[in-house]
Amino acid sequence: MARTVFCEYLKKEADGLDFQLYPGELGKRIFDSISKQAWGEWIKKQTMLVNEKKLNMMNPEHRKLLETEMVNFLFEGKEIVIDGYKPVE
């Protein structure tokens, strides 16, 4: 049985994640209030960010940048802006 959460990203009830995918307090907040759909959207953005900015996940500064972008995207409603990237219309 799927669990339902009020998704802060979608601003509506939606299927929640099956388990906590991110560590710590932030991970708990994501698990409690971000849907599978919203997480999927973030993963696409995260992949673009890692590729475009050539981020190294072994670098703590790069991980911190990604975490900040994730919070902005999922909870603050801020679109991810990648220099030079134009979404296909």
TrEMBL record:
SUPFAM superfamilies: YggX-like (SSF111148). Keywords: Iron. The keyword Iron applies. The keyword Chloroplast does not apply. Pfam families: Iron_traffic. Belongs to the Fe(2+)-trafficking protein family. Could be a mediator in iron transactions between iron acquisition and iron-requiring processes, such as synthesis and/or repair of Fe-S clusters in biosynthetic enzymes. This is Probable Fe(2+)-trafficking protein. It comes from Actinobacillus minor 202.
